[in-house]
Prior knowledge:
This protein has one domain: 3-Layer(aba) Sandwich (Chemotaxis protein chec). Strands 1-7-8-4-3-5 form a six-stranded antiparallel beta sheet. A two-stranded antiparallel sheet has the order 2-6. It is an alpha+beta fold. It has helices at residues 51-62, 71-82, 99-105, 125-139; strands at residues 9-13, 19-21, 34-37, 46-49, 84-87, 94-96, 110-115, 120-123. The protein contains four helices and eight strands; from the N terminus they run ββββααββαββα.
Amino acid sequence: MVGMKLSGEFDHSLDPKGRVTLPARYRDYFRDGAILVRLPRREPCLCVYRQDAWDAFDEKYLEGKDYYENEHDRWSVRDIYRMQDFVEPDAQGRILLADKRITELGLSGKVKIIGARDCLEIWDPDTWDAALAEETKRRGVDNG
């Protein structure tokens, strides 16, 4: 399953313990765990990567940063890795989201899960709808 492209739009719920069930078609893909990361200065969502997909992201976007000599690069790497967690899905395919991320993203009750090629994104539905409407308006296209 390496190289699988993640797609689709799913309506799920965040349970009272802060768990969300992964879409059924992707549960096996994430069976060995997932990297959850809130990417700073990006859209307000939580990205769900499989380890190999995260490693490819890291290699492409982070490995070339000069962590030791460049303060901006150092803070960029810190910001990303401090907002990252490794989780293992339970037998029902649920992953536990960090309380801090739930609060930051305003998640409660319903969540929207979006396939974004190499990761899934977990959004607050109202935030997703507003972002999609803004992008639709900006580009002058119908995303329905």
